[in-house]
Amino acid sequence: MLRYLPPQVVFQEVPDQVSLAFVITGCPLRCSGCHSKHTWSASYGNQLSNSQFSHYLSQYQSLITCVVFFGGEWHLNALIEKLKIAHQYQLKTCLYTGLEQVSDKLIKHLDFLKTGPWRADVGGLDNPGTNQRFIDVKTKQCLNHLFR
Ligand code: SF4
């Protein structure tokens, strides 16, 4: 079961989209210098059921164009269920993961994907030297330039 922090509407995490962002707790990757260490505990936050998630989308549907998850790939099936629901609401989907790649089973439910762990020495998506990549899944185009 996914656990999450209260979602927020964000404007910059997915280019040209207004997104409802869910931080999923319990990230197992332990990047050095992670800015979100307080979310590492798998018991932190509330459980995100499909009905609660649908309720959020019903509330925000007229305001947003996309749903972005910060993590959650470690609960693969639960995350895929949410991505399917988002598409049913005609919303695009995005995942920020610290992994270098995700499975075919997951990626086919995504419109956008950010990959790569946090590395303080090369910075995030706004840094030309970053190890991270933000891609449009359908076109496979790297969109990092849109964060600078
Ligand atoms: S993937 Fe993100 S949340 Fe997880 S440890 Fe790395 S920086 Fe922190």
UniProtKB/TrEMBL annotation:
Its cofactor is [4Fe-4S] cluster. PROSITE patterns: PROKAR_LIPOPROTEIN. Pfam families: Fer4_12. Keywords: Iron, Iron-sulfur, Metal-binding, S-adenosyl-L-methionine. The keyword Lyase does not apply. GO terms for molecular function: catalytic activity; iron-sulfur cluster binding; metal ion binding. It comes from the Bacteria. SUPFAM superfamilies: Radical SAM enzymes. This is Anaerobic ribonucleoside-triphosphate reductase activating protein.
